[in-house]
Amino acid sequence: MQRNHNHTTIVTIEKVIDETPTVRTLIFSDDRMSNVLPGQFAMVWIPGVNELPMSVMISKEPGKAAFTVRKHGPASTGLFNVKEGQQIGIRGPYGNSFDLKEGKLLLVGGGTGLVPMMRLLSFVKSTDDVTVLIGAKSKDEVFFEDLANNMLKNNPHKVIVSTDDGSYGEKGFVTDLVEKLVNESNFDGVYACGPEIMMYKTVRSAHSRNMFVQASLERMMKCGVGICGSCCVGEDLVCRDGTVFDGDHLSSNKEFGHFYRNKAGILEKY
Amino acid sequence: MNQLLYSKLSSLFKVEPSLATSIGQIQLDRPVMLASGILGISLDVFNRLYRSGAGAVVTKSLSTEPWEGYPNPTIFSVKGGGWINAVGLSNPGAPNFAKMIEPNQEVPIVVSLVGSIPEDFEMMIQQFENCKVIAYELNLSCPHVAKVGLEVGDDPELVRKIVTIAKNTTDIPIIAKVGLGTTHYLNTVNTAIDSGIDAITAINTVRAMAIDVETQRPILSNKFGGLSGTPIKPIALRCVYEISSKHDIPIIGCGGVSTWEDAVEFFLAGASAIQLGSAVGNDWIDVFSEINNGILQYMKRKNYSSIKDMVGLAKKS
Ligand SMILES: Cc1cc2nc3c(=O)[nH]c(=O)nc-3n(C[C@H](O)[C@H](O)[C@H](O)COP(=O)(O)OP(=O)(O)OC[C@H]3O[C@@H](n4cnc5c(N)ncnc54)[C@H](O)[C@@H]3O)c2cc1C
Ligand SMILES: Cc1cc2nc3c(=O)[nH]c(=O)nc-3n(C[C@H](O)[C@H](O)[C@H](O)COP(=O)(O)O)c2cc1C
Ligand code: FES
């Protein structure tokens, strides 16, 4: 019988990889999650702790998938602390995915926003010319740089890291690099996931030059299926209409880049 | 009348059926409403739902102060259909919400309210003075938050005081939403009607739970939640039939509607309009226009000109 994606499936964590002092990747076996499209997410239940939305990370082995989590509040710290052999529940995959363009591509990822970018990389053609920008606060918090280079070893490519404090790679915000790059050349596709201000600036830079750009939004999620309403941005529901939206659409959304909703649903300024 | 003659006559005088309906003083262009707690925190989303065919939207139940609600998991998909939720009535609070919907001109909005003392309701209704609101729905039936909802609905004296204070605070119609608690819900209905309520919504979710066999734990963070969706439809339908058999009060049927046939069943049982929520999780917001279209086709086939023609027909036999 085909699994109903809304039903929780229990999986066992097989391997935990420390990426940085605050970021870990947890690997598990699940056919459905191993085949998701770039941008799709799962609702992840940590028994006794919480349930939270997670982008699905790639794993090198077939049939396996992963989550890459940064410890933050109680929910993500609960997932971060899950050990090998422990069980978690997953439902999904939910959401749409990035539209793949061919040619010259620019991928912009900040923090764990890199996760959908890694999956996107696994879909690029060997003829695509790919630039990956990785944004991080400091040297300690840089991850997936080697992985990105590795995945692109047969492509014309560049992986550029920028740190806010300049302790590694270029100094400054990754969006300054975006602005520079889209000024220098015309990309066939620009993709972004990370802090909203970063996505906002990336979308603005690319959209104003008429480039195809998409971003994967993050909002407070409770149900993940379009019932609770907590993930709305303007009239869009991120879990159901997104998480990936076109630059055109985002540019006309008055909340994107400016407001988010807290756990009680009150609109707050970024 | 001879069936053949009837259908010939009716094809001569065919009236285009209308989806308009009235729930007492409340007039709606379309009979399918969005139930409380579903997608209900943004005016932009309300506008979109209205454009998609919802006849009215009921807001998330609002409290006097903002509430964060329970931690996740707050919703669970039941095998065989339906959901169990314990969102914990997370909401921005009535004052914040009122500010948000103040610009509304177009969407028929029903404001849902929860509270534990009569004065809560008075204070909240006052917040909406400058808003275009078509009705208030008193949530007397949330099954998973202490001191509000069912605990209020189970206390007839409190119901009487709340309905009375609400009626004295505004001229806008007041609806009571009842559900299955420890007191027989018909007692709550009786009390609400005696106290002057304008309409009844029946029912809310039904107290339920889910346990994961692998980890051997209750799944919802609150352990208990409310069951909604297809599994509760026969129960909700029975309640609507029961209320309409005993009382002459406008009823809104709620619980498990996901197709036009479900909606029509509720009309035949005595409801003048229906609300739906869980179906949105499966069929997304297209469900409103699909059900509206289905009802229209049915009305054409049966030669009904208005929803009113169907209400309560199942009680004839
Ligand atoms: C589609 C999507 C994909 C995500 N992918 C990843 C990922 O791959 N790796 C990663 O580390 N993080 C990811 N996140 C963010 C992650 O879900 C957590 O929200 C974030 O880590 C904050 O967790 P917390 O411990 O502070 O939550 P707590 O404060 O403990 O909050 C508990 C609950 O609130 C909700 N919540 C709180 N903050 C947010 C938020 N900003 N966005 C959504 N829900 C929130 C969660 O559903 C959670 O159940 C993703 C979020 C979304 C919406
Ligand atoms: C996630 C969720 C949240 C809900 N929140 C509320 C609420 O705040 N107030 C209320 O009166 N009912 C609430 N309900 C109950 C619904 O309004 C409705 O009565 C119930 O879901 C049955 O209808 P359905 O089967 O069409 O979903 C909620 C239901 C769900 C699924
Ligand atoms: S998370 Fe509930 S509607 Fe999107």
UniProtKB/TrEMBL annotation, chain A:
Its cofactor is [2Fe-2S] cluster. InterPro entries: Cyt_c3_hydrogenase_gsu (IPR012165), Dihydroorotate_DH_Fe-S-bd (IPR019480), FAD-bd_FR_type (IPR017927), FNR_nucleotide-bd (IPR039261), OxRdtase_FAD/NAD-bd (IPR001433), PyrK_electron_transfer (IPR050353), Riboflavin_synthase-like_b-brl (IPR017938). PROSITE patterns: FAD_FR. GO terms for molecular function: 2 iron, 2 sulfur cluster binding; flavin adenine dinucleotide binding; metal ion binding; oxidoreductase activity. Keywords: 2Fe-2S, Iron, Iron-sulfur, Metal-binding. [2Fe-2S] cluster binds at C223, C228, C231, C239. GO terms for biological process: pyrimidine nucleotide biosynthetic process. SUPFAM superfamilies: Ferredoxin reductase-like, C-terminal NADP-linked domain, Riboflavin synthase domain-like. Binds 1 [2Fe-2S] cluster per subunit. Residues 6-100 form the FAD-binding FR-type domain. This is Dihydroorotate dehydrogenase electron transfer subunit.
